[in-house]
Model the fold of this input.
Amino acid sequence: MIVPVILAGGSGTRLWPLSRQQAPKQFLKMFGDQTMLQQTIRRLEGLPDLAEPIVVCNEDHRFTVAEQLRGIGIKGQIILEPAARNTAPAIALAALQAKQMNKDEDPTLLVLPADHLIDEIAEFHRSIFLAIEKAAERALVTFGVVPTRPETGYGYIEVQGKVEAGRPSKALRFVEKPDTETAEEYLSQGSFLWNSGMFVFTADAYLESLEKYSSECYTFAKSSIGTAKSDLDFIRVDKDEFGQSPNISIDYAVMEKSDQVYSVPLDAGWSDVGCWRSYWDAQKKDADGNSIHGDAIAISTTNTLVHSADKLVATIGVDNLVVVTTSDAVLVINKNRAQDVKSAISLLSDRDRTEHLSHRKVYRPWGAYDSIDCGDRFQVKKITVNPGASLSLQMHHHRAEHWIVVKGTALVQKGEDTIMLSENQSTFIPLGVTHRLSNPGKMPLELIEVQSGSYLGEDDIVRYEDTYGRK
Done:
């Protein structure tokens, strides 16, 4: 039995402003009409004895994960990390859950980050079969990507002997991201592979190694999932127990210490799409080396990426740039400095801004809202409620709200009263009044909400009832 373990807890900060804390790259449609999470799961189709996936994610992203799995007709186990503790504890939770799912048998785990790009699926599957064969010998197998250039943005794995296609090699050491001169030396030696962060091993082999080399990580993962509770589509592990686990990657916790680590060479058009430079690398380009997405005009422009979400972008006489626009932010950066986007994130955080946290349009389990305008003591939002969905029964201490229906039908609970509103009708929710908005119809409900008050933050919500288990 092959159990896919999808690690979906990354933040994707180097792809800002498209990727944000509340909507990181793995949940975005970066390549085609499916998100990277959906593509990660779909590219496993055709593998034999494939169990339903286990997805490990941040609690804040739980509804996004559930909706995206449903969107591709997949039922999976969704484990919620109550705190970020890196890959070793996350994989331990999945391994323990996989054993429970398979009645304490020893399933084979295929561990994949949710935000990688792989072009050649058939070659990827061939590498998986090789890894599974080696894992059956109790080996811990990692996929080492055959390097195509002296890359300084990836870690490397040195293997025993020269890399040979179709042959697993014993891993000798893991090395951090090198400088350019060292990366060139690695490439010339022919015994180094890029560290992909993808793995195959049996659940027992991993857990036994984790207990041996990082016992605290093993202990707290086991105790936290031992008292886990099911909540809707989700598995909630014990917050206090899991919070005591070391914050440690699988490489540091196990792979660098074990003598049973092998690497399968992978040459399948892999990229971790870790920054805008790697995104440009992975895209088709015109004769001038430009990759254009959205409404853009490129004049005397070369080797440039333009990604426009909602406005016309014109570039004239530029080279080697990344230009990315969203509804609330614009990034212009030299492609060679693509790794430095995180400095903008740090500055936004230091200045207590929110553009690194969420987009102007924010998705919720019931639909979405788009913050159209705001000012001193007012805010205007467009709210969309899915058919049959409801917001929580709630109250605000600091703001009143005006609702104007522009499409569909709204069922409004306001205090002790319940009213039905259709297009062009409106209602007023005074400060402190309990209320709930529902869509009883079969088409999306769209309304304009005008908030007014002394404080308009999203945390000014007192929930009394909620379909989605939010506090």
User: Anything to note?
Assistant: The longest strand covers residues 192-202.
